[in-house]
């Protein structure tokens, strides 16, 4: 059952757990994510980026996720989401394709540019019943975190975030509290006080990107403080690629379906671990 991300995350916020938003790139990762969520009766967000549109075809990958969810898991609440839409045009395209949920990521732009385009996206989305995620502050990428980093330049400002959400009309907000994309050097400790303040001031559900290497203590603590959704990409990629490399090195399996099938199982296990960690098992 395809559902709205806004509703999924509002339920998670009320229930004190988080939902996983897992990036997919192909048939194998899609099936792994849906099977993991189905087996654990967990609501789930399946998401993809513009790069995956280029790789698989936007319409094809969208229809693959939707058809697979509706055919195999008709009762499971599944949201389909455009992750990190970097322009108004790509968001518009996703909405035209039927995405029930999109992110406009203007976090690398000036505040005013981010604000203006996020608001424009939210206005368009409202007319189509689509949920919108915005980002304020920014979550750095691997390439940006090699040397010394001044985390203050990246952090979400709580008061500014409250105004941003109120005035743009977005449904969920991605925040920066010392998290970074990829398995990479992050702030020694997330800024928990900042998160608590953001959660206090911002009414909509909060999303954490770049935390797929956060395990028990850290993940549980930020959920308690108000995170309702974790974006997960690197953990899944590593499970897939790690299994493929091992199998190719062993050289015993030659049937493509056997090789990709085992990589898919590894992704499924990784997604199941995350679902248990986020506390969304049994919430479908
Ligand atoms: P990771 O790369 O840390 O898994 O973060 C993924 C993400 O934030 C996708 O939007």
Explain what the structure shows.
It is a single chain. This protein has 284 residues and is α/β, with parallel strands linked by helices. The protein has eleven helices and eight strands. The protein has helices spanning 5-15, 27-39, 50-56, 58-72, 88-97, 111-128, 158-168, 192-201, 216-225, 234-250, 256-278, and strands spanning 19-23, 44-48, 78-85, 101-104, 131-136, 172-175, 206-208, 227-232. Strands 1-2-3-4-5-6-7-8 form an eight-stranded parallel beta barrel, surrounded by ten helices. Strand 7, helix 9 (216-225) and strand 8 (227-232) form a beta-alpha-beta unit. Helix 5 runs parallel beside helix 6 (111-128). It is globular. 48% of the residues are buried. The model has no long low-confidence stretch (mean pLDDT 95). The structure holds 1,3-dihydroxyacetonephosphate. Residues 23, 83-84, 181-182, 209-210, 212, 231-235 line the site of 1,3-dihydroxyacetonephosphate.
Give the H and E element order.
Answer: HEHEHHEHEHEHEHEHEHH
Spatial sequence of strands, sheet with the most strands: 1-2-3-4-5-6-7-8
**Spatial extent as radius of gyration:** 18 Å
Question: What is the structural class?
Answer: alpha/beta
Bound molecules: 1,3-dihydroxyacetonephosphate
Quickly count the helices. Answer: 11
Average pLDDT taken over every residue = 95
Helix content: 40-55%
Number of strands: 8
The poorly predicted ranges are none
**Largest sheet, if any?**
8 strands, parallel, barrel
What percentage of amino acids are in beta strands?
A: 5-15%
- Straight-line N-to-C gap: 11 Å
Oligomer: single chain
Q: How would the global form be characterised?
A: globular
């Amino acid at each position: 059952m395809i559902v709205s991300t806004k509703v999924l995350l509002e339920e998670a916020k009320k229930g004190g757990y988080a939902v996983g938003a897992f990036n997919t790139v192909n048939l194998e990762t899609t099936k792994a994510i849906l099977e993991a969520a189905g087996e654990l009766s967990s609501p789930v967000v399946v998401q993809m980026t513009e790069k995956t549109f280029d790789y698989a075809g936007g319409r094809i990958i969208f229809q693959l996720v939707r058809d697979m969810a509706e055919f195999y898991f008709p009762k499971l609440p599944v949201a389909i989401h455009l992750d990190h839409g970097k322009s108004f045009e790509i968001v518009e395209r996703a909405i035209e394709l039927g995405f029930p949920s999109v992110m406009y990521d203007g976090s690398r732009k000036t505040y005013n540019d981010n604000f203006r385009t996020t608001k424009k996206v939210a206005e368009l989305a409202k007319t189509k019943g689509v949920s919108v995620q915005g980002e304020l502050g920014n979550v750095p990428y691997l390439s940006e975190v090699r040397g010394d980093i001044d985390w203050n330049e990246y952090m979400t400002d709580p008061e500014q975030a409250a105004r941003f959400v109120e005035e743009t009309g977005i449904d969920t907000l991605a925040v920066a509290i010392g998290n970074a994309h990829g398995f990479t050097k992050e702030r020694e400790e997330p800024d928990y006080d900042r998160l608590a303040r953001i959660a206090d001031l911002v009414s909509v559900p909060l999303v954490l990107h770049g935390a797929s290497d956060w395990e028990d203590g850290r993940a549980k603590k930020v959920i308690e403080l108000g995170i309702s959704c974790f974006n997960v990409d690197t953990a899944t990629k590593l499970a897939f690629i790690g299994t493929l490399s091992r199998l190719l090195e062993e050289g015993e399996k030659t049937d493509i379906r056997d090789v990709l099938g085992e990589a898919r199982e590894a992704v499924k296990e990784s997604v199941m671990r995350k679902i248990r960690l986020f506390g969304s098992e049994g919430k479908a």
